[in-house]
Amino acid sequence: xxxxxxxxxxxxxxxxxxxxxxxxxxxxxxxxxxxxxxxxxxxxxxxxxxxxxxxxxxxxxxxxxxxxxxxxxxxxxxxxxxxxxxxxxxxxxxxxxxxxxxxxxxxxxxxxxxxxxxxxxxxxxxxxxxxxxxxxxxxxxxxxxxxxxxxxxxxxxxxxxxxxxxxxxxxxxxxxxxxxxxxxxxxxxxxxxxxxxxxxxxxxxxxxxxxxxxxxxxxxxxxxxxxxxxxxxxxxxxxxxxxxxxxxxxxxxxxxxxxxxxxxxxxxxxxxxxxxxxxxxxxxxxxxxxxxxxxxxxxxxxxxxxxxxxxxxxxxxxxxxxxxxxxxxxxxxxxxxxxxxxxxxxxxxxxxxxxxxxxxxxxxxxxxxxxxxxxxxxxxxxxxxxxxxxxxxxxxxxxxxxxxxxxxxxxxxxxxxxxxxxxxxxxxxxxxxxxxxxxxxxxxxxxxxxxxxxxxxxxxxxxxxxxxxxxxxxxxxxxxxxxxxxxxxxxxxxxxxxxxxxxxxxxxxxxxxxxxxxxxxxxxxxxxxxxxxxxxxxxxxxxxxxxxxxxxxxxxxxxxxxxxxxxxxxxxxxxxxxxxxxxxxxxxxxxxxxxxxxxxxxxxxxxxx
Length: 609
Prior knowledge:
By secondary structure, this protein is an alpha/beta fold. It has 3 domains: 19-185 and 220-399, no CATH class; 188-219, no CATH class; 422-576, Glucose Oxidase, domain 1. Helix content is 37%, strand content 13%. It is built from 22 helices and 14 strands. The chain has helices at residues 7-37, 46-53, 60-65, 90-100, 116-119, 128-143, 160-169, 190-201, 207-217, 229-239, 255-270, 281-284, 287-300, 306-316, 323-332, 347-353, 355-365, 456-464, 481-484, 493-501, 587-592, 602-605, and strands at 70-75, 104-110, 150-154, 176-178, 386-391, 394-399, 422-427, 430-435, 445-453, 472-476, 506-510, 523-528, 550-554, 559-562. Helix 8 runs antiparallel to helix 9 (207-217). The longest helix is centred in the first third of the chain and has 31 residues, at 7-37. It is globular and about 75 Å long. The relative contact order is 0.11. The model has no long low-confidence stretch (mean pLDDT 93). Pfam families: ILV_EDD_C (PF24877), ILVD_EDD_N (PF00920).
């Protein structure tokens, strides 16, 4: 017997519902209108239909007859991104699965899919966050053809799933399912990878040794196996009921993976407006689904990037969700999973131990998730508390049972930590996120003089020169969405980790991003307002810091303060805009971007809710 819904979940959910009432109502009106305006292919002119059907040689007769659903496939395939390489052959298979149930499928369009793992530390990373808006726009272009009765979204990684969801939600009258392709097999132990990275940062390992180690970690098609943003995406799609139940972490190329893909096609064909099981995306993604996604993020210690992505995804559905909501939920949701970098095992080991089926079962039983969300499965959200398998060739779901590895998965009654580890810090330096789940509790409070930098390359240079061998709060500013697109600052983790291992008290404060790949160093990230002033003038308080100012970063009292008299100082000048690697093309997005807490989106800030 499940417990009643937890009081904190009820309170936060009701607050989000009340806050979102005007925008959610406007959104629901939008998708009702869109459903009426784009509802019948037969209402489109014959010339338009002929253009749409001309390339579909095998399905032309079925499309002309119009008896079954026509499914739009939006794909983020490329074979530079390991997670998306398997998607190359998906359209042909998905079309076959559609024909099995009298439906048709067409590739509606493609979206870009950049890899943060390839661009980290490089100038291309400054395009990364806004690639999410480009993906949303690309998905909207794909679905703008009034040809589809449902959609399948092929994407996994960091900005790609949020972007696909934001774009698809503008066509929320369509039933839509997200189709993952699964993680690559496990490589070398994560601690060994981390060890070699730190040795390289100290100059004790060669570049060849570092590359050899990295190639043993990232070695084949499939999603990277640490619990970063990509795998946090998959977890959240399960928590929102937008996958076929249990799809997230089934490896590519397996018979079970193909059975789940087939089920996705059959389900989206069955959920159309003409049938008796209409489940449009815009009704699936409501306030309760957003809360479930946040709960999953907290319970599993997922990526801090979702402190930005979740508000943006929610806003695309007319739901207003902020960091106060996330922090309050974190106080009630225990950490019941430890997956690298929070633990030693990766997502394959997490799945083998019980995975998302175990997590969802525990959360539902303890009243820590909404059971009454509308999902894309055949039943309700309780189906997601089971795990998929094969009985011969038939797809079945089985009970998960207890955790198979209590170093990775524990029940709510005996969690790894009593809260979800995502805390909101506030003070005279602004608002910031602090992820405690990967940081030893002895380091939750750091008070030290700061050293101020305007980019991460300068931090690396100071580290190599020995200038940071002391207790220090490293401030890296002008990394927000309006400054340079809010890149992830991956290069900071190894040197700061080395300083910490040398016994120094070290913390990071930045208006940039880290991610689910960040680890043991205490960090106040996503600081808002950002340091960059831009045309609006002013700039955030980080712009007024100077070397030597005392800063307190504390996840116990949830404060982010300096003793310096910031009001008496002029802000540091904005850095000049850098061109190259296409960054100049994104100037409009930087100029109009919202703050991090609102989702750091130019698209939503300029009229998309």
